[in-house]
């Protein structure tokens, strides 16, 4: 059973699963989901907690032993399996066997990074997920962030002016932990409503944090101002320009291929699947393929090649200047 993070609280009050799987790419949402499940488990009498770190050397027979062991002090326990990597064959067998007959006095709580599509479609995961609640915590995108902030502010009894929400979103973009901390700080500083833009300016520091993939998403969306801001942030954080050049070259070639498939009449879903475009980025990729003309891609690829040469010292211009030109052509 798939459960969205925002649905988890309501689910836990109405239902209970013997297994929960919490994965994703947003650490704050993962930790909050785990805390909610642990808290509800304690209410239901699961007072003992056993943690198993499933690294490359982990012996999966420990899960079997933990499932069969009875505590001297409690008859209900939480067995946490913290995945550091995708389970190997022994792990897949152990998890599938556990799911086939879960112990009624145990809660199996599995956490880790997001599982790829091939893992989620595999027989072992389908068996595991049948009796389980599966929570996947994806990053909150820039467009969704104001709504997320407004909801979190409401839970704290805060009301922010719309412009204040937008400013807070800009200053905490890509950093949900900082967003939560700033909202908590605002709740301590201001008890009147609504909180204004000026108050946010005075109280909130710029905590925006970006990755190269945030730059890709902004470029695909055609958001020139945000793309340039992310590029400036990556430069100030010391990200190697060659890493950005390599990522953008791969994305440009993928979008050119997508553009060709779409023009040949292939359906967007089939084209994206054939090119292995991640599901969460398919809509943005299609937007970019429809917006940027084929001739412009050739110019972008030429600038990317010059960026590679600049990093290696055979091009006089700065690689960051060239990357700025790429951003302008791609998102402009």
3D architecture notes:
This protein is of the alpha/beta class and 332 residues long. It has 3 domains: 2-137, Rossmann fold (3-Layer(aba) Sandwich); 145-203, Helicase, Ruva Protein, domain 3, CATH 1.10.8.60; 212-331, Zinc Finger, Delta Prime, domain 3. It contains 17 helices and 6 strands. The chain has helices at residues 8-14, 27-43, 61-68, 89-100, 117-121, 123-129, 145-155, 162-172, 176-189, 197-203, 212-221, 224-236, 241-263, 268-274, 282-291, 294-311, 319-331; strands at 2-3, 19-24, 48-54, 77-83, 106-113, 132-137. Strands 1-6-2-5-4-3 form a 6-stranded parallel β-sheet, with helices on both faces. The longest helix has 23 residues, at 241-263. The protein is globular, with a radius of gyration of 24 Å. The model has no long low-confidence stretch (mean pLDDT 87).
